[in-house]
Amino acid sequence: MTFELAMKTGRRIARVNPFSPPGSGKILSLADVCAAVPPKGERYLGVCDVALSRLLGTEGRSQDFSPGFFPLHPWMRQRWEAVRDNFLSERIPGLPSLLEYGDYYFVRDGNHRVSAARCHEIEYLNAEVTLLEAPVRLWLFMDRGDIPLLRAKAAFEAASGALSILGDDLFSARRPRTYEILQHSILVAHRDYFRKVRGREAEPRELVLDWNDELYSKIIEFIKREALSSLFPGQGATDIFCLIMEDWGKLAPNTWFDEAYREFLSRAGRHTFLRRFLSQVQAFGKSLARSASEERDYFLLDSSLLRYRPQAEIPAGKAPWYRFLEAQFFGPHFRYLRARLGRLPRIDELAASWYDDLFLPVLREYQRLGLSIDFSSFYMGLMRVWGRRVLKKKAPIGIEEAIGAYIGRSRP
Question: What is the H or E stretch that residue 56 is in?
Fold first, then answer.
């Protein structure tokens, strides 16, 4: 990658869009992170092999790089190109120095080397690593606009200890207010419930475990099973849990959960389009900084595809390929399955239907035909032609007919 292309990419990312949080166009600063949630100590880990997909920011050069570590200023050209050339030919002595905080990394020394590595899609890098002992974990795709969320997460952990007791992976929150609602749910509402049911006070760890068993895990499983994330793009399962809890609390005492859920979904559905539009604008801005491997991880995580289809084949492609699959999975295919079932599909039903009935048959037919075009381009082109044919005919058409129409259209 040339410096001009790297800087152009960085500036496009830094501009993002008018709906993005303030400051989100620059790479995450460790100083901002530590100011919000100070580390509890530090220790030297030595030389480690670091996955660059877990690199979030820099200690002191946040104004010079965009998310993704693309350079932002013309005056950086000479230094960046010299470091890139020497780095790629392995002529730079010593190793970059990184700081690990919350399971992710920040560059202390060697920003240009890391930038060159990221711009050339190098996945791993040897580096000297110093661990900063953080009270909570950070998360993939975190940026400067997420600092309030980090502060709220740390406050929740300090008050409840739930992240340590249950595991950070059980929580998927993207709103600071979510952690305030969780804290009230555990330390106030569930403590009162426990006292009434058990006739005694709960120990802190016991309280958190009982809250998870009696309430949280059940509703989170329901949210995932019903694929509610497709109606609330940009929000995690824990955010949706808290939205349901807020609505449930407004209803009459002793209202059953199914009644609360139907009422919640009825009100939320009135604003789905606006929520979806604003979230998609923000998501697009953030997606510009993600590599192909990051986009692949994001799609597989969001769709739960490997959970329900562990042997699923997803041929490799560039970042837009995985964004296309994400949009198709939670967009037209979700709407198709909802119409077919007459209800919201469960996430396992959605994954099975998309992969078994659509993606895999197309992949097998592509392999049978032995086409020279790469599969990602073939699939995206086919889906566009298929959609136009369906609209024109006002009736479904089969995969073989759609492929025949697409191949015929593509021939000179």
Answer: strand 55-58
**304: alpha, beta or left, given left = phi > 0 and alpha = psi -120 to 50?**
left
Torsion of CA 297, 303, 309, 310, to 10 degrees: 30
Angle between helices 217-225 and 237-250 (to 10 degrees): 110
Mean of the pLDDT values across residues 158-168? 95
- Which pTM value belongs to this model? 0.66
| CA 313 centroid distance within chain | 21
Helical spans, DSSP H, in 59-130: 77-88, 111-119
Helical packing angle, 319-330 and 332-341, nearest 10°:
20
Closest by alpha carbon to 286, among 329, 325, 234, 248?
Answer: 234
The separation between CA 289 and the C-alpha centre of its own chain, rounded to angstroms, equals 12
Radius of gyration of the chain (CA): 24
- The sign of the dihedral angle between the CA atoms of 14, 27, 325, 405 is positive
pLDDT-wise least confident of 29-43, 126-140, 155-169, 226-240: 226-240
